[in-house]
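Here comes an entry:

___
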Amino acid sequence: MRTTRRFVRTATTAGLTAVLTGAAIGGATAVSTPQDFARTGSLRLAATAGGPVTSPPRGIAAQWVNTTDAPSGITVKLPGRTKVEHDSITLSGKTYQLRTYKVSAGKNKVVFQVTDMHGADTKAALDPAIRGIAASTSGTVSRNQPLKVAGHPAREGRITFDDNGVPRVVLVRYVAAADHLVGLGASGPATDEKGVKQLYQQLTGSLHIP
């Protein structure tokens, strides 16, 4: 359990956050560590109406292409072709591999990430992963709720933060798929949350876990 918490703090949330917020990421050792999760109680957690978004919108699916993470076989659709970015982190003598696929859609960003977590408790990592993104951006969590995705435990979050005076929104979902932690996210200016939501709907609706 301790290894899982440390892993999420130093790798998964930081890696996904770096892509969604536009921060630089050049390897595991270059990723900044979010605040300790014990301090995230100060985040404002607000209840939101309705359940998690699951249905992809009409009209944009044809523009997207299948993207498969070869080692895991996990597939999503992304709004354009991209190359995988490899990363890794070593904790307690064990190295975890991360693979990130990212595409920009105008001012918005879409991210698909698969982390190999063999021997770790992926379900226990779900909630800290959501909180870790908020902690690393000094943001606010306005949704952090559990759900099931194709029978797998998952959590879905909405996070807002200030980017040099520009309000931004992140919609993110983590899925505990056996030995893999799958991260799906879309972000953009808060003024275009409708567009971010459309991207997020298409992304999450296209996920296939073999």
Q: What stands out?
A: Residues 33 and 148 are 28 Å apart (CA to CA).
